[in-house]
Amino acid sequence: NAGVTQTPKFRVLKTGQSMTLLCAQDMNHEYMYWYRQDPGMGLRLIHYSVGEGTTAKGEVPDGYNVSRLKKQNFLLGLESAAPSQTSVYFCASSYPFREQFFGPGTRLTVL
Amino acid sequence: KQEVTQIPAALSVPEGENLVLNCSFTDSAIYNLQWFRQDPGKGLTSLLLIQSSQREQTSGRLNASLDKSSGRSTLYIAASQPGDSATYLCAVSLISSGSARQLTFGSGTQLTVLP
User: Fold this and answer.
1) A vs B: CB pairs below 8 A
2) pLDDT 10s digits, A33-81
């Protein structure tokens, strides 16, 4: 089992560019999550999904969109990147009401 | 709004020492509490999950306790080793957070175990 994988590992964008981060899990988990981690702010939830075809907003959803077309994949999109979105992005997955398992992260820099 | 605090922010101990990491939360209506470790530049590794109905959980040299009424959890590490050096994060999910049981994280305690 690969667990939770994230693509890419690193990315540098210019302000205004768009990109999609891919999360994949092979544990057949229903729930998937996107977090961002910033110094002094801890981890904060961006969006989450409780099943294929469903998504919901977390604590800091502005500037991001998500899609869950397949149970094993959860995509995070930035339509017009801003320097404030420079961060490390983590994806996680879980069974309902169980522990969350995290991916290795994507380090994004927006210039 | 749930707030999660971890004190101290950093801790340095000699190898072999037993130690306790602290986590406090403001809203006691939690569903569960989870402890993670994070190595530099890496993702989070789940260590222990305590359901709200439980008082403690153990895994190897790790023991986590939960006192909902006082809004506190501790992570006890026995016979610490240099390989235990990492940042330890606690996170709670509220009953009111809905079906996804979203996690609210503390800022972590950076542990260094000196050889």
Assistant:
1) 52
2) 999 999 888 899 999 999 999 999 998 999 999 999 999 999 999 999 9
DSSP B83-102: GG-EEEEEEEEEGGG-TT--
Q: Which residues pair with A76 in a beta bridge?
A: A21, A66
Is B42–A97 a contact, with Cβ atoms under 8 angstroms apart? no
Interchain proximity A101–B107, CB inside 8 Å: no
3-state secondary structure of A85: helix
Are β-strands B72-77 and B19-25 bridged in parallel, bridged antiparallel, or unpaired? Answer: antiparallel
| Closest residue in B to A100 (Cα–Cα) | B46
A105 vs B107: CB contact, 8 Å cut-off?
no
Q: Is A96 in Cβ contact with B106 (below 8 Å)? A: no
* Distance from the Cα of residue B78 to its chain's centroid: 15
d(CA A25, CA A5): 6
| pLDDT computed for residue B31 by the predictor | 87
| pLDDT tens digits along B32-44 | 999 999 999 889 9
Q: How far is A69 from chain B (nearest CA, A)?
A: 18
pLDDT score recorded for residue B97: 65
Candidate from B31, B44, B108 with C-beta closest to A90: B44
Distance, CA of B10 to CA of A110 (rounded, Å): 30
- Chain centroid to Cα B79, Å, comes to 17
| pLDDT score recorded for residue B100 | 62
